[in-house]
């Protein structure tokens, strides 16, 4: 059966000398893997840039329930991304978020609200060429609500400790809990309570930004044990440090 959907590229892997398997998060089907044949053939007409992390594509593919990997029929750019893959800083962010999303999105059922959140966030990131240094932090904070472990109390800026195990901000450090952080917890609290637009206006040094990022990654790891090591994390910290 031929199906149509919109998908966001998570990552790709080489399959044959001329083919790749691209992992997508789609609006109608959740996460799916699609084989793209003939990628490296000169006359294929397929551009490798089309399948870079966070690209938003309209897809037409042959869908068979018994297969783990579906077969691409046609693809085209649904939203032209002008800066993400042209700007080295933004491309590193895209690679990082693609790695994270690949590790945390396993749902094979549709989740339109989550898809819309990712799509709108990517478009915001592409369109804003200033004040985007906090985007990856804000995105991960927002994503946590869809994954089920957003902190339950994130409105009081006086709570200076973050209980990572229970997902709560506290005035005093939690007892008998090694999974807590007092490092810039008030700043992290502000991110969890802000939209991407508002988070863009939060000012901080590169050192603090990286400390907050490390706390969020650790928080994700605690609540998502399947989260793999994010290879691009250190590169991202260098870029925005």
Layout of secondary structure:
Elements: E1 2-14, E2 20-26, E3 30-36, E4 56-62, E5 69-79, H1 88-104, H2 112-127, H3 135-147, E6 161-163, E7 168-170, E8 180-181, H4 185-192, H5 196-199, H6 206-223, H7 233-240
Parallel strand pairs: 3-5
Antiparallel strand pairs: 1-2, 1-4, 2-3, 4-5, 6-7, 6-8
Structure in words:
This protein is of the alpha+beta class and 241 residues long. Helix 1 (88-104) packs antiparallel against helix 7, helix 2 (112-127) packs antiparallel against helix 3 (135-147) and helix 3 (135-147) packs parallel to helix 6. The strands form 2 sheets. Strands 1-2-3-5-4 form a 5-stranded mixed beta barrel. The mean pLDDT is 88. The chain has helices at 88-104, 112-127, 135-147, 185-192, 196-199, 206-223, 233-240; strands at 2-14, 20-26, 30-36, 56-62, 69-79, 161-163, 168-170, 180-181. It contains 7 helices and 8 strands, in the order E-E-E-E-E-H-H-H-E-E-E-H-H-H-H.
User: What would the principal axes of the Cα set say about the shape?
Assistant: globular
N-to-C SSE string, H for helix and E for strand: EEEEEHHHEEEHHHH
Please provide the count of β strands. 8
Low-confidence stretches: none
Assembly annotation: single chain
Radius of gyration: 19 Å
For the record, give the distance between the C-alpha atoms at the N and C termini, rounded to a whole number: 48 Å
Number of helices: 7
* Largest sheet composition: 5 strands, mixed, barrel
What fraction, in percent, of the residue positions are helical? Answer: 25-40%
Whole-number mean pLDDT: 88
The share of residues in extended strands comes to 15-25%
What class, by secondary structure content?
alpha+beta
Cross-sheet strand order for the largest sheet: 1-2-3-5-4
């Amino acid at each position: 059966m031929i199906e149509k959907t919109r998908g966001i590229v998570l990552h790709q892997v080489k399959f044959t000398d001329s083919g790749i398997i691209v992992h997508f998060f789609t609006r109608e089907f959740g996460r799916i893997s699609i084989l793209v044949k003939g990628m490296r053939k000169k006359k294929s007409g397929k551009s490798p840039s089309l399948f870079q992390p966070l690209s938003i594509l309209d897809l037409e593919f042959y869908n068979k329930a018994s297969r783990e990997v579906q077969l691409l029929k046609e693809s085209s750019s649904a939203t032209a991304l002008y800066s993400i893959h042209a700007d080295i800083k933004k491309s590193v962010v895209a690679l990082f978020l693609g790695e994270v999303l690949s590790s945390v999105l396993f749902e094979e059922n549709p989740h339109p609200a989550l898809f819309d959140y990712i799509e709108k966030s990517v478009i915001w990131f592409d369109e804003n060429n200033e004040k985007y240094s906090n985007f990856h932090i804000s995105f991960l904070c927002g994503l946590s609500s869809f994954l089920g472990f957003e902190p339950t109390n994130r409105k009081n800026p006086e709570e200076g400790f973050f209980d990572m195990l229970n997902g709560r901000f506290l005035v005093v450090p939690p007892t008998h809990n090694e999974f807590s952080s007092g490092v810039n917890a008030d700043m992290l609290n502000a991110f969890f309570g802000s939209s991407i637009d508002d988070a863009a206006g939060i000012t901080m040094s590169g050192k603090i930004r990286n400390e907050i990022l490390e706390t969020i990654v650790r928080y994700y790891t605690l609540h998502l044990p399947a989260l793999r090591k994010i290879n691009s994390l250190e590169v991202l910290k260098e870029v925005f440090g």
